Amino acid sequence: MLKQTAAFALMIGTALAPAGAQQPPTQRSELAELASFLSIPNVASDKPDIARNAERLKAMFEQRGFRMTVVETPGSPVLLGELVPAGSKPARTLTFYFHYDGQPVTPSEWKDSGPFQPIYRDKPLENGGRVVSLPSRGPIDPDWRLYARSSADDKGPIVAFLSAVDQARAAGQPITSTIRVLMEGDEEAGSPSLATVVTEHAAQIRSDLVILVDGPQHPSGRPTFVFGARGIMSAELTVFGARHDLHSGNYGNWAPNPAFELARLLSSMKDSTGRVTIAGFYRDVVPLTPDEQQAIAEIPDGDSTLMHRFGFARSEFPGQRLDALDNLPTLNVSGLGAGTVAGQGRTVIPAQAVARLDLRFVKNVTPDAQFARLAAHIQAQGFHLVSGNAPTDRERTTYPLLAKLTRMGGYPAGRTPLTSPIARQAVAAVAAATHTTPARLPSLGGSTPFYLFSDNLGAATVGMPVVNFDDDQHAPNENLRLGNFFDAMTAMRAIVTMK
Questions:
Q1: Which pLDDT belongs to residue 447?
Q2: What pLDDT does 4 receive?
Q3: Residues 146 and 252 in one domain
Q4: Which domain holds residue 105?
Q5: 259 and 202 within one domain
Protein backbone atom coordinates (compact mmCIF):
# COMPACT_ATOMS: atom_id res chain seq x y z
CA MET A 1 0.00 0.00 0.00
CA LEU A 2 2.97 2.38 0.42
CA LYS A 3 3.66 2.15 -3.29
CA GLN A 4 -0.01 2.83 -4.07
CA THR A 5 -0.10 5.85 -1.77
CA ALA A 6 3.04 7.25 -3.33
CA ALA A 7 1.59 6.71 -6.78
CA PHE A 8 -1.53 8.55 -5.72
CA ALA A 9 0.51 11.52 -4.49
CA LEU A 10 2.46 11.63 -7.74
CA MET A 11 -0.71 11.46 -9.78
CA ILE A 12 -2.36 14.25 -7.79
CA GLY A 13 0.65 16.43 -8.41
CA THR A 14 0.94 15.82 -12.16
CA ALA A 15 -2.19 14.30 -13.64
CA LEU A 16 -5.19 16.22 -12.41
CA ALA A 17 -4.98 19.66 -13.98
CA PRO A 18 -8.54 20.84 -14.49
CA ALA A 19 -8.50 21.86 -18.13
CA GLY A 20 -7.31 18.72 -19.87
CA ALA A 21 -3.53 19.24 -19.93
CA GLN A 22 -2.95 16.19 -17.76
CA GLN A 23 -1.02 13.10 -18.72
CA PRO A 24 -3.24 10.26 -19.98
CA PRO A 25 -4.57 8.35 -16.97
CA THR A 26 -3.56 4.73 -16.51
CA GLN A 27 -5.24 1.82 -14.80
CA ARG A 28 -2.55 1.87 -12.13
CA SER A 29 -2.92 5.56 -11.40
CA GLU A 30 -6.69 5.19 -11.20
CA LEU A 31 -6.39 2.25 -8.81
CA ALA A 32 -3.83 4.16 -6.74
CA GLU A 33 -6.27 7.04 -6.31
CA LEU A 34 -9.01 4.62 -5.29
CA ALA A 35 -6.78 2.74 -2.82
CA SER A 36 -5.72 5.98 -1.17
CA PHE A 37 -9.35 7.11 -0.85
CA LEU A 38 -10.37 3.73 0.58
CA SER A 39 -7.77 4.01 3.33
CA ILE A 40 -9.79 6.81 4.98
CA PRO A 41 -12.35 5.21 7.36
CA ASN A 42 -15.88 6.29 6.47
CA VAL A 43 -18.44 4.98 8.99
CA ALA A 44 -21.10 7.72 9.15
CA SER A 45 -21.04 7.92 12.96
CA ASP A 46 -17.31 8.78 12.99
CA LYS A 47 -17.52 12.52 12.34
CA PRO A 48 -13.77 13.31 12.17
CA ASP A 49 -13.15 10.62 9.56
CA ILE A 50 -16.26 11.58 7.61
CA ALA A 51 -14.93 15.15 7.53
CA ARG A 52 -11.63 13.82 6.12
CA ASN A 53 -13.53 12.00 3.40
CA ALA A 54 -15.47 15.14 2.49
CA GLU A 55 -12.25 17.20 2.33
CA ARG A 56 -10.58 14.60 0.11
CA LEU A 57 -13.59 14.48 -2.21
CA LYS A 58 -13.72 18.24 -2.51
CA ALA A 59 -10.05 18.30 -3.50
CA MET A 60 -10.43 15.42 -5.98
CA PHE A 61 -13.30 17.12 -7.79
CA GLU A 62 -11.83 20.62 -7.70
CA GLN A 63 -8.66 19.26 -9.31
CA ARG A 64 -10.85 18.23 -12.25
CA GLY A 65 -12.35 21.71 -12.52
CA PHE A 66 -15.60 21.16 -10.62
CA ARG A 67 -16.94 24.12 -8.66
CA MET A 68 -17.71 22.57 -5.28
CA THR A 69 -20.10 23.53 -2.48
CA VAL A 70 -20.05 21.84 0.93
CA VAL A 71 -23.47 21.81 2.59
CA GLU A 72 -23.28 21.24 6.33
CA THR A 73 -26.08 19.16 7.88
CA PRO A 74 -26.83 17.83 11.37
CA GLY A 75 -25.08 14.68 10.19
CA SER A 76 -22.43 14.41 7.48
CA PRO A 77 -21.65 17.07 4.88
CA VAL A 78 -23.31 16.89 1.48
CA LEU A 79 -21.09 17.90 -1.44
CA LEU A 80 -22.54 19.56 -4.53
CA GLY A 81 -20.46 20.14 -7.63
CA GLU A 82 -20.79 21.49 -11.14
CA LEU A 83 -18.58 21.25 -14.20
CA VAL A 84 -19.43 23.50 -17.16
CA PRO A 85 -17.41 22.55 -20.24
CA ALA A 86 -15.33 25.22 -21.92
CA GLY A 87 -17.11 27.24 -24.59
CA SER A 88 -20.84 27.79 -24.80
CA LYS A 89 -22.94 26.28 -22.03
CA PRO A 90 -24.47 22.97 -23.16
CA ALA A 91 -28.24 22.74 -23.44
CA ARG A 92 -28.27 19.51 -21.41
CA THR A 93 -27.50 19.04 -17.72
CA LEU A 94 -26.77 15.70 -16.03
CA THR A 95 -26.59 15.07 -12.27
CA PHE A 96 -24.68 12.12 -10.82
CA TYR A 97 -25.48 10.93 -7.29
CA PHE A 98 -22.99 9.04 -5.10
CA HIS A 99 -22.51 8.42 -1.38
CA TYR A 100 -19.17 8.35 0.39
CA ASP A 101 -20.08 6.73 3.73
CA GLY A 102 -19.87 2.98 4.37
CA GLN A 103 -21.46 0.40 6.62
CA PRO A 104 -20.04 -0.16 10.13
CA VAL A 105 -17.21 -2.69 10.39
CA THR A 106 -15.83 -5.31 12.75
CA PRO A 107 -12.11 -5.39 11.84
CA SER A 108 -11.57 -8.95 13.11
CA GLU A 109 -14.02 -10.22 10.47
CA TRP A 110 -11.79 -9.04 7.63
CA LYS A 111 -9.29 -11.61 6.40
CA ASP A 112 -5.65 -10.68 5.90
CA SER A 113 -6.15 -6.94 6.42
CA GLY A 114 -8.37 -4.40 8.10
CA PRO A 115 -11.41 -2.93 6.34
CA PHE A 116 -9.51 0.27 5.54
CA GLN A 117 -6.27 -1.37 4.40
CA PRO A 118 -6.99 -2.16 0.73
CA ILE A 119 -5.55 -5.39 -0.66
CA TYR A 120 -5.80 -7.22 -3.98
CA ARG A 121 -6.69 -10.88 -4.53
CA ASP A 122 -6.33 -12.86 -7.73
CA LYS A 123 -9.90 -14.17 -7.40
CA PRO A 124 -12.75 -14.05 -4.87
CA LEU A 125 -11.85 -14.93 -1.29
CA GLU A 126 -14.36 -17.79 -1.16
CA ASN A 127 -12.72 -19.31 -4.25
CA GLY A 128 -9.29 -19.37 -2.62
CA GLY A 129 -8.18 -15.93 -3.77
CA ARG A 130 -4.59 -15.14 -2.78
CA VAL A 131 -3.30 -11.72 -1.74
CA VAL A 132 -1.33 -10.30 -4.67
CA SER A 133 0.39 -7.08 -5.72
CA LEU A 134 -0.37 -5.21 -8.90
CA PRO A 135 2.21 -5.95 -11.60
CA SER A 136 4.45 -2.95 -12.35
CA ARG A 137 3.76 -3.24 -16.06
CA GLY A 138 1.61 -5.14 -18.50
CA PRO A 139 -2.11 -5.82 -18.39
CA ILE A 140 -4.07 -6.06 -15.15
CA ASP A 141 -6.31 -9.12 -14.81
CA PRO A 142 -9.93 -7.85 -14.81
CA ASP A 143 -10.97 -10.73 -12.55
CA TRP A 144 -8.74 -9.58 -9.71
CA ARG A 145 -10.54 -8.06 -6.72
CA LEU A 146 -9.81 -5.02 -4.56
CA TYR A 147 -10.89 -5.68 -0.96
CA ALA A 148 -11.83 -2.81 1.38
CA ARG A 149 -14.92 -1.25 2.91
CA SER A 150 -16.69 0.89 0.28
CA SER A 151 -14.57 -0.45 -2.57
CA ALA A 152 -17.87 -1.23 -4.29
CA ASP A 153 -20.38 0.73 -2.21
CA ASP A 154 -19.74 3.53 -3.17
CA LYS A 155 -16.19 4.89 -3.39
CA GLY A 156 -15.20 2.71 -6.36
CA PRO A 157 -17.91 4.25 -8.57
CA ILE A 158 -16.88 7.78 -7.50
CA VAL A 159 -13.29 7.26 -8.63
CA ALA A 160 -14.47 5.51 -11.80
CA PHE A 161 -16.53 8.62 -12.61
CA LEU A 162 -13.58 10.96 -12.10
CA SER A 163 -11.41 8.64 -14.19
CA ALA A 164 -14.03 8.74 -16.96
CA VAL A 165 -13.74 12.54 -17.04
CA ASP A 166 -9.93 12.25 -17.09
CA GLN A 167 -10.00 9.72 -19.92
CA ALA A 168 -12.35 11.81 -22.04
CA ARG A 169 -10.13 14.87 -21.69
CA ALA A 170 -6.94 12.92 -22.37
CA ALA A 171 -8.51 11.54 -25.56
CA GLY A 172 -9.67 14.98 -26.68
CA GLN A 173 -13.35 14.07 -26.33
CA PRO A 174 -15.50 17.06 -25.39
CA ILE A 175 -17.76 16.88 -22.35
CA THR A 176 -21.15 17.52 -23.96
CA SER A 177 -23.30 18.28 -20.90
CA THR A 178 -23.10 20.44 -17.85
CA ILE A 179 -22.21 17.87 -15.20
CA ARG A 180 -23.46 18.13 -11.64
CA VAL A 181 -22.70 15.84 -8.72
CA LEU A 182 -24.33 15.25 -5.35
CA MET A 183 -22.47 13.19 -2.77
CA GLU A 184 -23.84 12.44 0.69
CA GLY A 185 -22.22 10.90 3.75
CA ASP A 186 -25.27 9.51 5.56
CA GLU A 187 -26.74 7.11 2.99
CA GLU A 188 -25.99 4.06 5.11
CA ALA A 189 -27.74 5.80 8.02
CA GLY A 190 -30.95 6.34 6.04
CA SER A 191 -30.17 9.71 4.38
CA PRO A 192 -31.77 11.75 7.20
CA SER A 193 -30.73 15.15 5.79
CA LEU A 194 -30.91 14.52 2.07
CA ALA A 195 -34.54 15.55 1.57
CA THR A 196 -33.84 18.94 3.14
CA VAL A 197 -30.71 19.45 1.04
CA VAL A 198 -32.51 18.52 -2.19
CA THR A 199 -35.35 20.92 -1.37
CA GLU A 200 -33.15 23.85 -0.32
CA HIS A 201 -30.58 23.41 -3.11
CA ALA A 202 -32.89 22.23 -5.89
CA ALA A 203 -31.50 24.76 -8.36
CA GLN A 204 -28.00 23.26 -7.97
CA ILE A 205 -29.24 19.69 -8.31
CA ARG A 206 -32.14 19.62 -10.79
CA SER A 207 -31.19 18.49 -14.29
CA ASP A 208 -32.47 16.77 -17.41
CA LEU A 209 -31.38 13.39 -16.06
CA VAL A 210 -30.32 12.30 -12.59
CA ILE A 211 -28.12 9.18 -12.51
CA LEU A 212 -27.77 7.34 -9.19
CA VAL A 213 -24.56 5.32 -9.26
CA ASP A 214 -25.03 2.82 -6.46
CA GLY A 215 -25.72 -0.89 -6.04
CA PRO A 216 -24.62 -4.05 -7.89
CA GLN A 217 -24.82 -4.70 -11.61
CA HIS A 218 -27.13 -7.41 -12.97
CA PRO A 219 -25.55 -10.88 -12.50
CA SER A 220 -25.51 -11.37 -16.27
CA GLY A 221 -22.61 -8.92 -16.35
CA ARG A 222 -24.38 -6.59 -18.76
CA PRO A 223 -24.27 -2.82 -18.26
CA THR A 224 -27.29 -2.11 -16.10
CA PHE A 225 -29.87 0.64 -15.83
CA VAL A 226 -32.64 0.66 -13.27
CA PHE A 227 -35.63 2.93 -13.66
CA GLY A 228 -36.74 2.84 -10.06
CA ALA A 229 -35.64 1.89 -6.57
CA ARG A 230 -37.46 0.49 -3.58
CA GLY A 231 -38.11 2.55 -0.50
CA ILE A 232 -37.29 1.20 2.95
CA MET A 233 -38.30 1.29 6.59
CA SER A 234 -36.92 -0.55 9.62
CA ALA A 235 -38.86 -1.63 12.69
CA GLU A 236 -38.13 -3.32 15.98
CA LEU A 237 -40.63 -5.84 17.36
CA THR A 238 -40.36 -6.80 21.04
CA VAL A 239 -42.48 -9.51 22.69
CA PHE A 240 -42.64 -9.44 26.49
CA GLY A 241 -42.91 -12.23 29.07
CA ALA A 242 -42.29 -11.94 32.81
CA ARG A 243 -40.74 -8.83 34.36
CA HIS A 244 -37.30 -10.48 34.40
CA ASP A 245 -35.61 -13.68 33.24
CA LEU A 246 -36.76 -16.83 35.05
CA HIS A 247 -35.00 -20.13 35.80
CA SER A 248 -35.87 -22.51 32.95
CA GLY A 249 -36.03 -25.51 35.27
CA ASN A 250 -38.06 -24.04 38.08
CA TYR A 251 -40.52 -22.27 35.79
CA GLY A 252 -40.34 -24.21 32.53
CA ASN A 253 -43.70 -25.48 31.19
CA TRP A 254 -45.35 -22.75 33.25
CA ALA A 255 -44.05 -19.23 32.56
CA PRO A 256 -44.67 -17.92 29.03
CA ASN A 257 -41.61 -17.80 26.79
CA PRO A 258 -41.59 -14.67 24.59
CA ALA A 259 -39.09 -16.26 22.20
CA PHE A 260 -41.64 -18.89 21.17
CA GLU A 261 -44.39 -16.29 20.99
CA LEU A 262 -42.19 -14.12 18.76
CA ALA A 263 -41.39 -17.11 16.55
CA ARG A 264 -45.08 -17.90 16.12
CA LEU A 265 -45.87 -14.27 15.42
CA LEU A 266 -43.17 -13.97 12.77
CA SER A 267 -44.26 -17.25 11.16
CA SER A 268 -47.78 -15.87 10.82
CA MET A 269 -46.48 -13.11 8.56
CA LYS A 270 -45.47 -15.31 5.60
CA ASP A 271 -46.80 -18.50 4.05
CA SER A 272 -44.76 -21.42 2.72
CA THR A 273 -44.51 -19.83 -0.76
CA GLY A 274 -42.86 -16.69 0.59
CA ARG A 275 -45.94 -14.51 0.17
CA VAL A 276 -46.53 -12.01 2.97
CA THR A 277 -49.88 -12.73 4.67
CA ILE A 278 -50.37 -9.31 6.27
CA ALA A 279 -53.74 -7.99 5.11
CA GLY A 280 -53.40 -5.41 2.35
CA PHE A 281 -49.63 -5.82 2.03
CA TYR A 282 -49.77 -5.91 -1.80
CA ARG A 283 -52.92 -3.85 -2.24
CA ASP A 284 -51.34 -0.64 -3.55
CA VAL A 285 -48.78 -2.22 -5.88
CA VAL A 286 -48.93 -0.74 -9.39
CA PRO A 287 -48.65 -3.56 -11.96
CA LEU A 288 -45.73 -3.48 -14.36
CA THR A 289 -46.48 -1.95 -17.75
CA PRO A 290 -46.09 -4.07 -20.91
CA ASP A 291 -42.82 -2.21 -21.62
CA GLU A 292 -41.50 -3.08 -18.16
CA GLN A 293 -42.55 -6.71 -18.48
CA GLN A 294 -40.80 -6.90 -21.86
CA ALA A 295 -37.63 -5.36 -20.44
CA ILE A 296 -37.46 -8.09 -17.78
CA ALA A 297 -38.11 -10.79 -20.38
CA GLU A 298 -35.13 -9.52 -22.40
CA ILE A 299 -32.69 -9.86 -19.49
CA PRO A 300 -30.89 -13.20 -19.01
CA ASP A 301 -32.24 -15.05 -15.98
CA GLY A 302 -29.44 -14.93 -13.43
CA ASP A 303 -31.21 -16.76 -10.60
CA SER A 304 -29.26 -20.01 -10.91
CA THR A 305 -25.97 -18.09 -10.97
CA LEU A 306 -26.93 -16.24 -7.82
CA MET A 307 -28.13 -19.34 -5.96
CA HIS A 308 -24.91 -21.17 -6.81
CA ARG A 309 -22.82 -18.17 -5.71
CA PHE A 310 -24.72 -17.74 -2.44
CA GLY A 311 -25.12 -21.45 -1.67
CA PHE A 312 -28.81 -22.37 -1.53
CA ALA A 313 -31.02 -24.67 -3.60
CA ARG A 314 -34.47 -23.04 -3.60
CA SER A 315 -35.66 -19.46 -3.58
CA GLU A 316 -38.16 -18.25 -1.02
CA PHE A 317 -40.70 -17.41 -3.76
CA PRO A 318 -40.48 -20.45 -6.10
CA GLY A 319 -41.50 -20.00 -9.70
CA GLN A 320 -40.72 -16.29 -10.00
CA ARG A 321 -37.38 -14.81 -10.96
CA LEU A 322 -35.63 -12.20 -8.85
CA ASP A 323 -35.84 -9.49 -11.50
CA ALA A 324 -39.65 -9.66 -11.31
CA LEU A 325 -39.81 -10.03 -7.52
CA ASP A 326 -37.83 -6.80 -7.15
CA ASN A 327 -41.08 -5.09 -8.11
CA LEU A 328 -42.98 -6.31 -5.04
CA PRO A 329 -42.77 -5.02 -1.45
CA THR A 330 -40.84 -7.16 1.03
CA LEU A 331 -40.85 -8.06 4.72
CA ASN A 332 -37.54 -9.27 6.10
CA VAL A 333 -36.30 -10.45 9.51
CA SER A 334 -32.75 -9.12 9.80
CA GLY A 335 -32.02 -9.92 13.44
CA LEU A 336 -33.29 -11.95 16.42
CA GLY A 337 -32.33 -11.94 20.06
CA ALA A 338 -33.48 -13.39 23.42
CA GLY A 339 -31.80 -14.44 26.65
CA THR A 340 -28.11 -14.14 25.82
CA VAL A 341 -25.14 -12.56 27.60
CA ALA A 342 -22.12 -11.67 25.44
CA GLY A 343 -23.27 -14.20 22.86
CA GLN A 344 -23.59 -17.07 25.37
CA GLY A 345 -26.97 -18.69 25.94
CA ARG A 346 -28.28 -19.06 29.50
CA THR A 347 -30.73 -21.59 30.96
CA VAL A 348 -33.48 -19.04 31.47
CA ILE A 349 -36.89 -18.19 30.17
CA PRO A 350 -36.09 -14.76 28.75
CA ALA A 351 -38.10 -11.74 29.82
CA GLN A 352 -38.36 -10.52 26.26
CA ALA A 353 -37.49 -11.42 22.69
CA VAL A 354 -36.66 -8.94 19.95
CA ALA A 355 -36.75 -9.05 16.16
CA ARG A 356 -35.35 -6.43 13.83
CA LEU A 357 -37.40 -6.08 10.65
CA ASP A 358 -36.93 -4.20 7.42
CA LEU A 359 -39.66 -3.53 4.89
CA ARG A 360 -39.03 -2.50 1.29
CA PHE A 361 -41.56 -0.59 -0.75
CA VAL A 362 -42.35 -0.26 -4.45
CA LYS A 363 -44.04 2.62 -6.23
CA ASN A 364 -47.34 3.68 -4.62
CA VAL A 365 -46.76 1.64 -1.43
CA THR A 366 -46.03 4.06 1.43
CA PRO A 367 -44.13 3.55 4.70
CA ASP A 368 -47.07 4.85 6.73
CA ALA A 369 -49.51 2.40 5.18
CA GLN A 370 -47.24 -0.64 5.54
CA PHE A 371 -46.38 0.17 9.15
CA ALA A 372 -50.08 0.46 9.98
CA ARG A 373 -50.77 -2.89 8.29
CA LEU A 374 -47.94 -4.54 10.21
CA ALA A 375 -49.27 -3.20 13.51
CA ALA A 376 -52.80 -4.33 12.65
CA HIS A 377 -51.54 -7.83 11.86
CA ILE A 378 -49.77 -8.10 15.22
CA GLN A 379 -52.95 -7.05 17.00
CA ALA A 380 -54.99 -9.52 14.94
CA GLN A 381 -52.80 -12.32 16.34
CA GLY A 382 -54.00 -11.41 19.82
CA PHE A 383 -51.20 -9.08 20.92
CA HIS A 384 -51.74 -5.87 22.83
CA LEU A 385 -49.30 -3.20 21.59
CA VAL A 386 -47.79 -1.16 24.39
CA SER A 387 -46.88 2.48 23.86
CA GLY A 388 -44.16 2.88 26.51
CA ASN A 389 -40.71 1.37 26.75
CA ALA A 390 -42.15 -1.59 28.69
CA PRO A 391 -45.63 -2.78 29.68
CA THR A 392 -47.23 -1.20 32.72
CA ASP A 393 -48.21 -3.36 35.69
CA ARG A 394 -51.83 -3.10 34.60
CA GLU A 395 -50.98 -4.24 31.05
CA ARG A 396 -48.96 -7.18 32.38
CA THR A 397 -51.86 -8.45 34.48
CA THR A 398 -54.53 -7.76 31.84
CA TYR A 399 -53.18 -8.95 28.51
CA PRO A 400 -51.68 -12.44 27.96
CA LEU A 401 -49.76 -11.36 24.82
CA LEU A 402 -47.76 -8.12 24.93
CA ALA A 403 -45.63 -6.56 22.22
CA LYS A 404 -44.07 -3.27 21.24
CA LEU A 405 -43.53 -2.14 17.65
CA THR A 406 -41.12 0.73 17.01
CA ARG A 407 -40.69 2.33 13.62
CA MET A 408 -37.27 3.60 12.52
CA GLY A 409 -37.16 6.02 9.60
CA GLY A 410 -38.51 5.21 6.20
CA TYR A 411 -38.90 6.66 2.73
CA PRO A 412 -40.95 5.67 -0.35
CA ALA A 413 -40.00 4.17 -3.69
CA GLY A 414 -39.53 6.09 -6.93
CA ARG A 415 -39.94 5.20 -10.59
CA THR A 416 -39.19 6.69 -14.04
CA PRO A 417 -40.92 5.34 -17.18
CA LEU A 418 -38.75 3.21 -19.44
CA THR A 419 -39.95 5.43 -22.28
CA SER A 420 -38.16 8.57 -20.96
CA PRO A 421 -36.32 10.02 -23.99
CA ILE A 422 -33.25 11.28 -22.10
CA ALA A 423 -32.92 7.98 -20.22
CA ARG A 424 -33.14 6.05 -23.48
CA GLN A 425 -30.41 8.28 -24.90
CA ALA A 426 -28.11 7.39 -22.00
CA VAL A 427 -28.83 3.67 -22.44
CA ALA A 428 -28.05 3.95 -26.16
CA ALA A 429 -24.75 5.74 -25.48
CA VAL A 430 -23.59 3.00 -23.13
CA ALA A 431 -24.72 0.28 -25.54
CA ALA A 432 -22.67 1.85 -28.35
CA ALA A 433 -19.56 2.27 -26.17
CA THR A 434 -19.64 -1.24 -24.71
CA HIS A 435 -21.04 -3.09 -27.74
CA THR A 436 -23.48 -4.75 -25.33
CA THR A 437 -27.23 -4.45 -24.88
CA PRO A 438 -27.73 -3.11 -21.36
CA ALA A 439 -30.08 -4.76 -18.91
CA ARG A 440 -33.02 -2.46 -18.14
CA LEU A 441 -34.70 -3.14 -14.81
CA PRO A 442 -37.94 -1.44 -13.78
CA SER A 443 -36.70 -1.32 -10.18
CA LEU A 444 -33.60 -1.92 -8.12
CA GLY A 445 -34.09 -4.47 -5.39
CA GLY A 446 -32.25 -2.31 -2.90
CA SER A 447 -33.17 1.14 -1.67
CA THR A 448 -31.80 4.50 -2.72
CA PRO A 449 -33.34 7.97 -2.27
CA PHE A 450 -34.57 7.73 -5.87
CA TYR A 451 -37.93 9.36 -5.06
CA LEU A 452 -36.28 12.64 -4.03
CA PHE A 453 -35.25 13.18 -7.63
CA SER A 454 -37.97 11.39 -9.62
CA ASP A 455 -40.90 12.59 -7.52
CA ASN A 456 -39.83 15.61 -5.46
CA LEU A 457 -37.73 17.27 -8.18
CA GLY A 458 -39.75 15.85 -11.06
CA ALA A 459 -36.55 14.89 -12.92
CA ALA A 460 -36.08 11.87 -15.14
CA THR A 461 -34.05 9.56 -12.92
CA VAL A 462 -32.23 6.27 -13.47
CA GLY A 463 -29.89 4.11 -11.46
CA MET A 464 -26.69 2.90 -13.09
CA PRO A 465 -25.15 0.23 -10.84
CA VAL A 466 -21.68 -0.64 -12.06
CA VAL A 467 -20.06 -2.98 -9.50
CA ASN A 468 -19.98 -6.77 -9.41
CA PHE A 469 -23.09 -8.51 -8.08
CA ASP A 470 -20.97 -10.62 -5.69
CA ASP A 471 -19.28 -7.64 -4.03
CA ASP A 472 -20.31 -8.52 -0.43
CA GLN A 473 -21.35 -4.93 0.15
CA HIS A 474 -22.45 -4.22 3.74
CA ALA A 475 -20.65 -7.40 4.82
CA PRO A 476 -17.07 -8.22 5.83
CA ASN A 477 -14.59 -8.50 2.95
CA GLU A 478 -16.45 -6.17 0.60
CA ASN A 479 -14.73 -6.19 -2.76
CA LEU A 480 -14.66 -4.65 -6.23
CA ARG A 481 -13.90 -6.67 -9.34
CA LEU A 482 -11.33 -4.67 -11.30
CA GLY A 483 -13.02 -5.39 -14.62
CA ASN A 484 -16.19 -3.76 -13.32
CA PHE A 485 -14.17 -0.72 -12.23
CA PHE A 486 -12.64 -0.34 -15.70
CA ASP A 487 -15.96 -0.99 -17.46
CA ALA A 488 -17.64 1.63 -15.26
CA MET A 489 -15.22 4.23 -16.61
CA THR A 490 -16.21 3.31 -20.17
CA ALA A 491 -19.93 3.55 -19.41
CA MET A 492 -19.73 6.89 -17.58
CA ARG A 493 -17.39 8.34 -20.18
CA ALA A 494 -19.99 7.44 -22.83
CA ILE A 495 -22.66 9.34 -20.93
CA VAL A 496 -20.68 12.51 -20.22
CA THR A 497 -19.62 12.70 -23.89
CA MET A 498 -22.88 11.58 -25.53
CA LYS A 499 -24.10 13.73 -28.41
A1: 87
A2: 38
A3: no
A4: 2-227+416-496
A5: no
Asked which of 377, 411, 445 is the last residue of a domain, the reply is 411
Element of type H or E holding 292:
helix 290-298
Helix (H, G, I), strand (E, B) or coil at 281: coil
Into how many domains does the chain fold? Answer: 2
Return the number of other C-beta atoms located less than 10 Å from residue 232's C-beta: 23
298 in a domain, yes or no?
Answer: no
CA distance 230 to 232: 7
- Could you tell me the CATH number of the domain that includes residue 397? 3.30.70.360
Please tell me whether residues 159 and 85 are part of one structural domain.
yes
Query: Which pairs from 387-392 meet CB under 8 Å and 24+ separation?
Result: 390/240, 391/240
pLDDT at 25: 80
* Domain end marker among 382, 411, 440: 411
Distance CA 22, CA 39 (A): 25
Contacts for 250 with CB less than 8 Å, ≥ 6 apart = none
Taking alpha carbons only, the member of 167, 406, 440 closest to residue 288 is 440
pTM: 0.84
Report the greatest alpha carbon distance in the chain: 84
Are residues 64 and 105 located together in one domain of the fold? yes
pLDDT tens string 169-221 = 999 999 999 999 999 999 998 889 999 999 999 999 999 999 999 989 999 99
Question: Which pLDDT value is given to residue 12?
Answer: 36
CA dihedral 476, 482, 485, 490 (to 10 degrees): -160
The verdict on 388 and 259 lying in the same domain is: yes
**C-alpha to C-alpha distance for 344 and 272, rounded to whole angstroms:** 31
Residues 352 and 430 in one domain: no
Q: Please, what is the Cα angle at 390 between 384 and 391, to 5 degrees?
A: 45
Q: How far apart, in whole angstroms, are the C-alpha atoms of residue 477 and residue 471?
A: 8
The DSSP symbol for 109 reads G
Q: Distance (Å, rounded) from C-alpha 197 to C-alpha 80?
A: 10
Q: Is the peptide bond before 154 cis (omega within 30 degrees of 0)?
A: yes
Average pLDDT by stretches of 10, the chain with 499 residues: 35 37 76 98 95 98 98 97 90 97 96 97 96 94 98 98 97 96 93 95 97 93 95 96 96 97 98 96 95 94 89 90 94 92 80 97 96 98 96 97 95 94 98 97 90 95 96 96 98 97
- 42: domain CATH number? 3.40.630.10
132 and 236 in one domain?
no
d(CA 253, CA 256): 8
115 belongs to a structural domain: yes
pLDDT tens figures, 295-352: 999 999 989 988 998 899 999 988 889 999 999 999 999 999 998 766 677 899 999 9
User: Do the domain assignments include residue 484?
Assistant: yes
138 shares a domain with 120: yes
Asked whether the beta carbons of 319 and 313 are under 8 A apart, the reply is no
Does residue 94 contact residue 84 with C-beta atoms inside 8 Å? Answer: no
Domain contains 309: no
